[in-house]
Amino acid sequence: MTVRLRRLNGGETAVTDERLDALRAAFQGPLITPGDPGYDESRVVHNGMFDRHPGLIARCSGAADVIDAVNLARERDLLVAVRGGGHGIAGHSACDEAMMIDLSAMRGVWVNPAERLVRVQGGATWGDVDRETQVFGLAVPGGVVSTTGVAGLTLGGGLGWLHRKYGLTCDNLAAAEIVTADGALLRTSATEHEELFWALRGGGGNFGVVTAFEFHAHPVGPTVMYGLAMYAAADAEEILPAWRTWTTGLPDEVTGRAMFWSMPASLLLPPEVHNRDVFITAAVYAGPPDEATEILRPIGQFGTPLADLTGPMPFRDVQRLLDWMFPKGQLLSYWKSVGVRELGDDVLEVVLRRGLERPHPQTMVHVPQMGGAVQRPGIHDTAFGDRSAAYIVSIDGNWTDAADTEADVQWVRDAFNEVNGLPSASGTYLNFSGDPDLDSASRRAAFGENLDRLARVKRDFDPGNRFRLNNNIRPTG
Fold first, then answer.
1. What is the pLDDT of residue 386?
2. What is the CA radius of gyration of the chain?
3. Which residues contact 39 (CB under 8 A, 6 or more apart)?
């Protein structure tokens, strides 16, 4: 069967059976076309907003397969989507009639405990990384949901439970191997293709397909002190200012966050919070658990909690606690975020009001704490943009009925605009963005002074903008 695929210019091209057979002869992984067994399962991404039908899925087994797929894309001028973990809120990893370069089978993780280095393939998830590193009591700063892909989180920055102590995920990147638009496999580091390495640390998927990452790891776990208390959402007017006061001056070992959410009647949750709107305060201490008892004790004392789950917990379990709340393909999601230099009363007012009027139980108003090691690198040390934010306000729209999409997307945008219009607003975090196409203001807000330099790197390594299904940076010229 001839496969019809989209070209970069919006037209179509036909790839014949003979060409696909020639590719299959060399390709180690499967080439999946519409109608093949497993096609529908293979095209599903995490955000249920996107029901897309790629024209060809090239499920790569290693860097050689990626090179062949990129060469086919260049030969036929194909539109390309790159899938790592498939977790991106904006749905960039799948596109109708495009070729999907699928790294989901490339999930190997290798740990060098003596040097505290971890090599990770481009399709791995943070659960894969934690599984291997925790054997040695090590961790790479990653996300807060274990099914999140390593590639997307790293290339976009990387917030989690360890960033105040050890920095963003991209700050811990020691090297990366990437297939660029010309089909070359390059190793990048502080001494190899330095400008490209700089761009990969926060510049997104603009520059090629990263087949492997090498990270610095840190002594964390296997048990950490985890703090979590759930309060009635109606009490947040009292609790939110107290949480703000507590987070001021915390040691870098503590990374905290607060959020408005609603709890279902699940056996995984205490009965006291079943079917309740809640305000959650949570934190992880990135150090010996016995040092953290007094530091984290206030988490359950901002008011009268419905449930206080603070205590020692295996780090891997902390990383998986939220997984069940984000089932693959079942939630429709649209998120937007704003960094704020301070959590002033004007910011608290919007967070409180929006948190209490959420349009769907699974929509979140989420405030991760920043600062600490995140703010230590200089603004030009990595491609990641504004590091001045002390907190992020993330409006995480999640719902289940497609009929609600228009209203819920607008609600998220309106809430974002309220926070973004405040004096302390400071940039945006693109890993928490549901916009498939960035406008110029969002692009500048995300990358700041680094945008022009990123555009030059893009020109040098992807002048035709083949890798455009991402938070796209257009090449200079």
1. 84
2. 22
3. 32, 33, 57
Cβ–Cβ under 8 Å, residues 221 and 137: yes
Sorting pLDDT into bands at 50, 70 and 90, what band is 2? confident
Tell me the β-bridge partners of 333.
Answer: 398
* Token pair in block for residue 174: 């020691």
Helix, strand, or coil (residue 228): strand
Give the strand pairing for 307-308 and 223-232. Answer: antiparallel
Digit-coded pLDDT (tens) for 307-342:
999 999 999 999 999 998 899 999 999 999 999 999
Average pLDDT (154-181) is 98
Contact 43, 430 (CB under 8 A): no
**Which residue spans within 92-202 are E strands per DSSP?**
99-102, 109-112, 117-121, 138-139, 173-179, 185-189
In 89-141, where do the E strands start and end? 99-102, 109-112, 117-121, 138-139
| Residue partners of 469: CB distance under 8 A and separation at least 6 | 79, 80, 81, 82, 92, 93, 95, 98
CA distance 326 to 127: 14
Averaged pLDDT for residues 165-187 = 98
End-to-end CA distance of the chain: 39
Letter for the amino acid at 343? L
Q: How far apart are CA 61 and CA 84, in angstroms?
A: 12
| Nearest Cα residue to 61 out of 109, 104, 11 | 104
Q: Are 331 and 48 in contact (CB under 8 A)?
A: yes
Rounded to an integer, what distance in angstroms lies between the CA atom of residue 8 and that of residue 213? 28
Looking at residue 96, its pLDDT comes to 95
CA atoms within 13 A on the CB side of 371: 20
Angle, nearest 10°, between helix axes 345-356 and 236-247?
140
Q: Please say whether the dihedral angle defined by the alpha carbons of residues 185, 187, 192 and 195, taken in this order, is positive or negative.
A: positive
Chain centroid to CA 355: 22
Tokens for 230?
A: 């759930």
Is 1 a residue whose pLDDT tops 70? no
Rounded to an integer, what distance in angstroms lies between the CA atom of residue 224 and that of residue 285?
6
Secondary structure of residue 192 in the 3-state scheme: strand
